[in-house]
Design a protein that fits this description.
This protein has 349 residues and is of the alpha/beta class. Helix content is 35%, strand content 17%. It has 13 helices and 15 strands. It binds 3-phosphoglyceric acid and magnesium ion.
């Protein structure tokens, strides 16, 4: 895989540095609800400060603003406050939500020039947004000497390991609802895996028809529910005994046991997507069992994608896997074997 040049090769002494970070974090009641991405951006900012940068201007989008109301709701101010509390240095300044500029997402040169104005160097550390060709992630890289930040490099390194020679057994676990988004990734990676375990809504679709060029393991039992509701009537059923019109909202205990046994023997694991509706505790056991088995395995284990990351964090197991990716869509596109525009725009290292 192509490696963009590292910020560590840049001479930043006395320079004004524009940093694109992915500080697109969840908000609740106007406050930062999860600051994982803000913390993940700190090492690069600290590196720049330690190496004498005169000014560090940070840019990020927040959400997908469209209306005038969104402009208020999606102001970057709460993120700026959290960043300041984690890294107090007068040389650091966070720009307002880049997506408030209409030119940002269409990658118009005007806004890219505005971002570059007065800056000496550009550092892209926004791995989570590297699949977007926007002004702040791509356009500006053509206007300033461009480098990759430390998080960007770490993400490429860890996820890149799955694209190279891996230790076997290599087990992939996939689930979640966005089936079509994930099929290309599975096709690209799955042929190299020894086992591909499928849960969640994806399994229902695959049972009808497996569009992949290799076999997959599907659940033998599910937690069947009478409706898509937290308090729905529910019981464990083998897959051929799910009452008509009922939904499988989690994998069942026999499947959890079988998947767990396979995962515990694995030497390489990629997990993307929960096994069921884990946000509701009655349907969380299957996802929890998978998370526990991934954590227990003596394996190089990578968890990517927003929901599975949230799950492993809520179960308190994030520090027992090898790498938790800050990228959802970006990690999937990378594993599909696609070039990420935000990476491609940085000269090779
Ligand atoms: C993400 O959260 O996936 C990234 O920040 C990209 O956001 P986007 O899907 O709105 O471009
Ligand atoms: Mg482990």
């Amino acid at each position: 895989m192509r490696r963009p040049r590292s910020v560590e090769t840049a001479d930043v002494e006395g320079k004004r540095v524009l940093v694109r970070a992915d500080l697109n974090v969840p908000l609740a009641a106007g406050e930062v609800a999860d600051d994982t991405r803000i913390r993940a951006a700190l090492p690069t900012l600290q590196w720049l400060l330690d190496h004498g940068a005169r000014e560090v201007v940070v840019a990020s989008h927040l959400g997908r603003p469209e209306t005038a109301d969104d402009r208020e709701r999606l102001s970057i101010a709460p993120v700026a406050n959290r960043l300041r509390s984690l890294l107090a240095d007068d040389r650091v300044r966070l720009l307002e939500n880049t997506r408030f500029e209409p030119g940002e997402t269409s990658n118009e040169s005007g806004f890219a020039r505005e971002l570059a104005e007065g800056m000496d160097i550009y550092v892209n550390d926004a791995f989570g947004s590297a699949h977007r060709a926007h002004c702040s992630t791509e356009g500006v890289a053509h206007l300033l000497p461009a480098y990759a930040g430390l998080l960007m490099l770490a993400e490429l390194e860890h996820l890149g390991r799955l694209l190279g020679e891996v230790e076997h057994p290599f087990v992939i676990v996939a689930g979640g609802a966005k089936v079509d988004d994930k099929l290309a990734v599975l096709e690209n990676l799955g042929g190299r895996a020894d086992r591909v375990l499928i849960g969640g809504k994806m399994a229902e679709q695959m049972r009808e028809h497996n569009p992949l060029s290799f076999p997959v393991e599907l659940p033998v039992d599910v937690v069947a529910a009478s409706a898509f509701a937290e308090d729905a009537e529910a019981h464990v059923a083998t897959v051929d005994a799910v009452p008509a019109g009922w939904l499988g909202l989690d994998i069942g205990p026999a499947t959890a046991e079988a998947f767990g046994a396979i995962l515990r023997e694995a030497r390489t694991i990629f997990w993307n997507g929960p096994m069921g509706v884990f946000e509701w505790s009655r349907f969380a056991a299957g996802t929890r069992a998978v998370a526990e088995a991934v954590a227990a395995a003596d394996a190089y284990s990578v968890v990517g994608g927003g929901d599975s990351v949230r799950a492993i964090q809520e179960f308190g197991l994030a520090d027992r896997v090898s790498w938790v990716s800050t990228g959802g869509g970006a990690s999937l596109e990378l594993l599909e074997g696609r070039d990420l525009p935000g990476v491609a725009a940085i000269p090779e290292g």
